[in-house]
């Protein structure tokens, strides 16, 4: 009887956390060049964007997960409770010349159990394929229904121009962090310049226009 009462309590976290909920935590930049930090943020953000297009999933916004960007060891169970999610995805990106390594792992934040992990060693040009493959793997692990239109949207790269994606990632990172910066106005002007350059390189880059 006590167990039944506990399950019925409205403030019991087990009764409110959606089993198909997930937070994509900031990825770690393992590249020798520290300026690739923005590229790593772009990879994480694109995976988060892909997952957000799946109606059957509850995905926490990037703004909400940015606070977990520091290198301090993460307590994933606590993060799951703070964000109200059942699962977290974390990973790393290593970029060197025309090669890229992306590692990702899916963890059940309620139990700390590792549900899925994969490392992708590919050509840099394959980065968008890697992002969509990770998103589809997560959807499969969480048994999320994926419509043909959602699958098509996930597989559609934001741009085919890697240089435009670099510019976009730098600009978006500045926009998202400017409220925490002492140089907010300067960051805004720089972000505008970067995004303008991105759409000049690829006039069909819809996300950069947004």
Sequence-ordered SSE layout with sheet pairings:
Layout: H1 2-8, H2 13-16, E1 21-24, E2 28-29, H3 37-52, E3 58-59, H4 62-65, H5 76-83, E4 87-96, E5 99-108, E6 113-123, H6 127-141, H7 148-155, H8 162-177, H9 184-201, H10 206-209
Parallel strand pairs: 1-3, 1-4, 2-4
Antiparallel strand pairs: 4-5, 5-6
Helix pairs in contact: 3-6, 3-8, 8-9
Report on the architecture of this protein.
There is one protein chain. This protein is α/β, with parallel strands linked by helices and 210 residues long. Helices cover 48% and strands 19% of the residues. The chain contains ten helices and six strands, in the order ααββαβααβββααααα. Strands 1, 2, 3, 4, 5 and 6 form a six-stranded mixed beta sheet that branches. A hairpin with a 2-residue loop joins strand 4 (87-96) and strand 5 (99-108). Mean pLDDT is 89; it is low at 1-14.
Q: Based on CA inertia axes, which overall geometry fits? A: globular
Q: State the share of residues found in helices, binned by percent.
A: 40-55%
Count all strands and give the number.
6
Structural class by secondary-structure content: alpha/beta
Low-confidence stretches: 1-14
The span between the termini is: 54 Å
Q: List the total number of helices.
A: 10
- Beta-strand content: 15-25%
Rg estimate, integer Å: 18 Å
Biggest sheet features: 6 strands, mixed
Mean pLDDT, nearest integer? 89
Order of helices and strands: HHEEHEHHEEEHHHHH
């Amino acid at each position: 009887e006590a167990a039944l009462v506990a399950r019925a309590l409205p403030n019991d976290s087990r009764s409110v956390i959606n089993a198909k909920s997930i937070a994509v935590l900031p990825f770690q930049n393992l590249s020798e060049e520290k300026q690739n930090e923005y590229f790593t943020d772009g990879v994480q953000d694109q995976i988060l964007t892909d997952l957000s297009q799946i109606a059957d999933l509850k995905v926490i916004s990037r703004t909400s997960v940015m606070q977990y960007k520091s290198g301090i060891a993460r307590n994933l169970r606590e993060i799951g409770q703070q964000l109200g999610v059942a699962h977290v995805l974390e990973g790393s990106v290593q970029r060197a010349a025309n090669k890229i390594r992306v590692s990702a792992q899916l963890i059940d934040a309620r139990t700390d159990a590792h549900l899925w992990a994969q490392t992708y060693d590919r050509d840099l040009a394959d980065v968008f394929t890697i992002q969509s493959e990770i998103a589809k793997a997560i959807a499969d692990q969480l048994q999320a229904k994926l419509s043909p239109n959602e699958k098509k949207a996930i597989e559609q790269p934001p741009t085919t121009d890697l240089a435009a994606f670099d510019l976009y990632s730098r600009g978006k990172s500045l926009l998202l962090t400017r409220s925490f910066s002492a140089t907010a106005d300067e960051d805004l002007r720089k972000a505008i310049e970067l995004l303008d350059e991105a759409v000049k390189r690829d006039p069909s880059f819809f996300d950069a226009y947004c």
